[in-house]
Specification:
Order of helices and strands: HHHEHEHEHHEHEEEHEEHEEEEH
Helix content: 40-55%
Mean pLDDT: 87
Low-confidence stretches: none
Number of helices: 11
Structural class: alpha/beta
Radius of gyration: 22 Å
Strand content: 15-25%
Length: 349
């Protein structure tokens, strides 16, 4: 975009397209709705399917905003950013670990740290590490300059040498930036690496690794979020969490994760559409794992109730019935799937 006016005009066009013309449905979008609705029914049982659909549409707009953020980082960022100066002053007092979530303008923290010339290392999973350059084209110039000056390092958290790199960089004054809700490293069968904490009144299992690293390296933890508002971004933070010498690392990680997710949940109840992870939360639900089942009681079950069921496309394009309470998929007749599409499972309403 050449000017802020051009940006605003184009953004309004995209907004009208989504909210007036409706969602451009495809197999990926239908699956995303089904997964998101299943997870919202688990964490927010007080919301009906109409609310799921509204939040889903709003979440698609948030994804569009995330894409535009990357384009805007190459030029003039048009939104007013509140709270950044105070947060920057806090982290400059002592090198530490910045903990954030894939929520709101979640990529903005990288941009702000680069613009402030604040040295930091970003911890990512293997897939993101290998795709980083393609994903962050708007940050090319800032990243290149910061790398040449030794102010930015990308760390593959799955690398065996990552802990040594974190120790060396933090000792040289680099902050460690971590997305606490990263899901790439979560694998079934490796629950000994996870910590069970309460989140929105439910039990979830999340990685404890980053918080354990902060404890091991004696780094203060700076939680933060970049919350989208009307033409503004608000940098929100909670009080710094400092490791206590000789404290138990396992208990420390458990306590900190409990506090972090409790704090995050207080924002999520107000702006659920701003969290990009809704379609993927089955990875952190101890009760959930995709399974295939055989349908025996089709005539007795209310399979046309979208609070209980959805439709889900396989990679080969075949569509299954998806039971939301336990993520079980069933093969049923195509004409029944076509009927469900017309009642709000994906597509028009």
């Amino acid at each position: 975009m050449d000017t802020v006016q051009d940006y605003t005009k184009e953004l309004q066009r995209l907004h009208d397209r989504l909210y007036k013309e409706g969602i451009d449905w495809n197999q990926t979008i239908v699956n995303r709705l089904t997964d998101m609705s299943a997870n919202m029914a688990f964490f927010f049982p007080e919301l009906d399917y109409r609310a799921h659909r509204k939040i889903f549409r709003d979440s698609l707009w948030q994804l569009k905003m995330d894409t535009w953020d990357l384009k805007l980082f190459a030029g003039t960022y048009p939104y007013k950013i509140r709270g950044w100066k105070g947060f920057l002053q806090k982290i400059r007092a002592q090198t530490g670990m910045i903990c954030t979530y894939h929520f709101g303008a979640y990529q903005l923290i990288n941009y702000l740290l680069l613009r402030a010339r604040e040295p930091f290392a970003l911890l990512v999973g293997d897939k993101v590490y290998n795709e980083w350059e393609q994903r962050n084209t708007g940050l090319e110039k800032l990243l290149g300059r910061a790398r040449r000056k030794g102010r930015f390092t990308l760390i593959n958290a799955t690398d065996r040498a990552s802990l040594r790199k974190m120790y060396e960089l933090s000792a040289r004054g680099h902050h460690l930036l971590v997305y606490v809700d990263g899901l790439e490293g979560i694998k079934y069968g490796k629950r000994h690496l996870l910590e069970q904490v309460e989140f929105l009144g439910c039990e979830i299992e999340v990685p404890r690794g980053a918080i354990s690293v902060a404890h091991a390296l004696k780094l203060p933890i700076y939680p933060m979020l970049a919350v989208r508002g009307e033409n503004t971004i608000s940098i929100e933070s909670m009080p710094t969490i400092a490791p206590v010498a000789h404290s138990n690392r396992t208990l420390f990680a458990r306590s900190v994760l409990y506090r972090l997710y409790g704090w995050f949940g207080s924002y999520l109840v107000h702006w659920p559409e701003q969290w990009t992870n809704w379609p993927f939360l089955q990875k952190i639900r101890p009760d959930a794992q995709y399974r295939c089942g055989e349908w025996y009681t089709l005539e007795k079950e209310p399979y046309d109730d979208p609070m209980q069921y959805g439709i889900y496309y396989r990679s080969d394009g075949i569509c299954d019935l998806y039971r939301k309470r336990d993520l079980v998929k069933f093969s049923i007749a195509q004409e029944k799937i076509d009927t469900l599409r017309l009642t709000g499972y994906g597509g028009s309403p």
